[in-house]
Each structure stands twice: as structure tokens, then as C-alpha cells.
Please model this.
Amino acid sequence: MTLSRRLALSSASLLAVACAGPDVTAILRPGAPPRDRAAVLQTLLPGDNGPLLGARESPWHIVTDAPSTVTLRAGALVIASAPGRRAFAAPRLPVAAIEPIASRRHEELSWTASVTVDPNVRFFIICELRFAGEAGAVLFQATPFDVQVTQDSERPGGGSSVSLPRLIGDGGRHSWRLRLSEAGTQMLLNGSPIWTVDGQRALAWVAFGETRTDALHGGQMTLSDVVYVRRPALPQEVAWKE
Model:
């Protein structure tokens, strides 16, 4: 048999195999890859010029009541609120955490903030947190003397307010880290845990700055280094282990 004849028969055999059945078709046209359950948001990082505020593609939802303002300065958000006027920025998280928690996973939200409390008032809200499936909010607030953790009256177990002996309304830079795992929810300030609640939760919404119109609230916060990560927990991972 000639070489050309053998090549013709080989080509015909390959064509017949390619059209033979669904097994080959499955190889040629594989199904969609598995859904990535991880989600990441990074903004206001060093060297970044910062997001365009007000643009459709901006990772931030901004709310202000004049004369309060939220502006971008040197890659950081500057949130300045007058007493009785809102000024806050809420990051658009990559995945809305409203579905039931069906598997072990970890969420972390970290940021850096410097806060100055208006000398004529008492509070400035660092962040307002809301969790999927739970009513009400948890507020972390700076005062001239401490950090106040306040839970709305609609929260499970009713409203409460706890004073933490930490001074952060001094204008200095402080790092914050919120961690949610199977064991519970934990807030760290400058690397040290300051608040913990048991039970697994999912973060549904967070806002930085003044979300309330109380006349006792006012001041300024410079916000940067905002990083959010949601990922499946590793089988060997210990809750809150560094």
C-alpha cells in the first residue's frame, strides 16, 4: 500500500472517530467550569489613584447630606460629616451575602482609618455592619474616650451598647479587621481582638462613616486599604488562626 493511500485511510479513520458518538463530543465541548465561590474586592490601596466616585463602575455607593462630604484625596476616601447630617461610603461587595450559609467558609474585611471626632459632639461611626437574615445593625463608634459597640434594638437579643477602652478618635492611623467563620464573628483593632460573637454569619452590608442623623454625631475619617475576601474554608483550617 502506498504512503498516500495509508494517509488517506488514517484521515478517514480519525474523522469517523470524531463523529462516532457523544464521548468525543464531550471532550471537544466540555461543560462549564465549576463556579468559583471565592470573591474579592480591593480598593484604596497604596499607589492606586482611587475609584471614580459617582461612576457606574465605582466600587462605592456614596451618600451625603450637605454640608457633609465624601471626597477622594491622595487615593483615600475622606468622609466628613456635620452634626445631624449623613456622610458614608458603602463598598459594593462582589457577591451579595443573602443566601443561607450552606458550607464552611471564611469572610474577611480589613481597612485602615484615621478618625477625628468633632469636639462639639460625642460620636463618629467607624462602620455599620448588617448580617444576612438578621434585622438591625451593629455600629462601631469612636468617641473622645473609647470605642462604643452599639446594636440596634431590632437585633437578636435586643439593643445594647458596650464600651471598649481603646482611644481611636485621636487622628492616628488604626487598622481594623472583621473576620467571619464557622466559629463566630470577630473584630480586631490593630491586630488585637476587641469584640466576638458566636455563630456563623454572612456579611450582607457594610458602610463606613455617619449613617445616622443624630445631632451628637460628627467628625472626619480618612479611609484606605480596603480589602474584602470570601472563600471556602480549608479542611484543616482552624477558626481565626493566623
About this structure: The radius of gyration is 26 Å. Residues 1-31 form one domain. The longest strand covers residues 219-232. The chain is about 10% helix and 45% strand.
